[in-house]
Amino acid sequence: MANVEQAEQRKLLRHVLSGPVNIYDRVSKSFLGRLVNVHTEGLMIMGNHPFTADSIYQLDMQLPQAIEGCEMISIGVDCLWSRSEDTHVHWAGCKIIDASEDARRQIQALIELFGEQAE
């Protein structure tokens, strides 16, 4: 079943961005990591913060430049998986579960302005 779900998720093109997008916890304001890639329904984060699979996070994405007058995009995500390396680098794959229409439009604009298709 997991392979079917992964195949469905991979139908959406993932995009790496040419500018850095820092990710912060909306509640604590703490830095969590950087955006690795993104599509309109999910994203991958890499950083020093350990994530927990099957957990909900409220995130602020700091944009490399303002989009529609905003420098942050606020979203809610469900962490689908997390992985840690010996170097204390943590990876997390997240599904966007809560985003305003403005946030969704800004994510699409972010992809159009700074995105390159990931392999």
Notable traits:
single chain; 119 residues; alpha+beta; Thrombin, subunit H; six-stranded antiparallel barrel; two-stranded antiparallel sheet; 8 strands; globular
In brief, what are we looking at here?
The protein has 119 residues and is of the alpha+beta class.
How does this structure look, described?
The protein is α+β, with helices and mostly antiparallel strands and 119 residues long. It has one domain: Beta Barrel (Thrombin, subunit H), CATH 2.40.10.220. The protein contains two helices and eight strands. The strands form two sheets. A six-stranded antiparallel barrel has the order 2-3-4-7-6-5. β3 and β4 (42-47) form a beta hairpin. 24% of the residues are buried.
Any idea how many domains? 1
SS element count, helices = 2
Query: Count the strands?
Result: 8
Compute the separation of the termini in Å: 23 Å
- Overall structural class, as computed from helix and strand content, comes to alpha+beta
Apparent shape: globular
Helix content: 10-25%
Give the SSE string: HEEEEEEEHE
CATH superfamily: predicted glycosyltransferase like domains
Low-confidence stretches: 1-9
Roughly what is the average pLDDT, rounded to an integer?
A: 86
Topology:
Elements: H1 2-9, E1 15-17, E2 22-25, E3 31-39, E4 42-47, E5 55-67, E6 70-84, E7 90-98, H2 101-114, E8 115-117
Antiparallel strand pairs: 1-8, 2-3, 2-5, 3-4, 4-7, 5-6, 6-7
